[in-house]
Amino acid sequence: MTPIQWQQIKTIVQTALEIEPEKRARFVAENCSDDKFLRGEVQSLLDSYENAGEFIQTPAFVGKLQILATNNFTAKLISGKRVGRYEIRSLIGKGGMGEVYLAEDLRLHRKVALKVLPADLVNDRERLYRFEQEAQAASALNHPNIITIYEIGETDDTSFIATEFIEGETLHSLLKRQSLSLELVSDIAVQIASALQAAHDAGIVHRDIKPENVMIRPDGLVKILDFGIAKLAEKHEPESESEAATAAIRIKTTPGMIIGTASYMSPEQARGLAVDARTDIWSFGVLLYEMISGRVPFTGETITDIIVAIVEKEPPPLKNSMSGQIPAGLARIITKTLRKNPDERFQTSGEILVNLRQLRQKLEIESQRQNPVTAEARSEAATRMTVVETDDGFSTLPPGETRLQHIFT
Q1: Which pTM does this prediction carry?
Q2: CATH number attached to the domain at 72-164
Q3: pLDDT band at 37 (very low <50, low <70, confident <90, very high)
Q4: Which H or E run contains 157?
Q5: What distance, in Å, lies between the first and last C-alpha atoms of the chain?
Q6: What average pLDDT does this structure show over 317-324?
Q7: Is the domain covering 169-407 a CATH 2.60.40.1120 domain?
Q8: CA 82 to chain centre
Q9: How does pLDDT run across 239-254, given as a tens digit for each residue?
């Protein structure tokens, strides 16, 4: 079996598991066509899944594919339940990597977001240890645009991550609610790039940059969520390309998350190759494209279609944004982040940040020309620093780094 065949098998099986059982046979027939080998392998894995039942315990199935079962997630916690020093208040959301609750830290009397990890992901102690090391490294970044991790803990029956609780909305929600001006795109992009630069400089790769992992507070501060979370789904470092492909798809195809996340995968992720900071740069480019156009650059009706588009096709040209003409400088940034070959992209997020700040400065100058202000006011705006309050004190950012208040007003 070639790596390409194995990729086809995995994507068809995992997509089949997302649809109603009575529709799977037709789906398999349509996607396998007359390829008897492909259809046989797909059907074998689906049969193993069905025979294994809800817990997917059949060794042959687990060994070949290791699809994560949503039925294995920790049961919903009720309000008032204690998890360590935290008391559950309400469920915020849930997904392939667990459930997230609003909770109160009973010792420090503050709100926290408590992510309860599914047991089937943390039973492997070596994998959990590696994840804890990465999460601890992320928590040490102490960057205003990266969510603060308070604790990685474990009670008798629950493994959890406690982070700061962020009031606001995700970029995903914002994009559904309204189109974004060029100035707003620039402000958000600069903050994301700043966070990525800090993480990459510390040797940390996010691996899952997407709108759902970008939070925007009412005061305009952008926060990147879930640094290191995707690492939890990797059982060990892959030793071959086919093994890497298995790991990559396993991370990206947790039931309920498959379509949305796949759209932001880099070509090397889609092909199961090794990833580095340039993978985050690609995903960031997809975000930029989406913020400008209102759509993702690579689409398809199935996961296979999306992966093929990411690996083989070029994104549709960006002629105009939802709010007007796209500056040539921004178009160049997006084009370079979406190069198929990682060596042809920006090599560091710091490079992107420099370009974005230059672009924002040009936009501000153009805005001032169209809406003249006094030289004194311009000087004050250019020199003013933004003070950001964090749990560890105060820090400052360059001008405009957090000026997104107009989103919510």
Answers
A1: 0.69
A2: 3.30.200.20
A3: confident
A4: none
A5: 57
A6: 69
A7: no
A8: 29
A9: 444 444 444 444 343 3
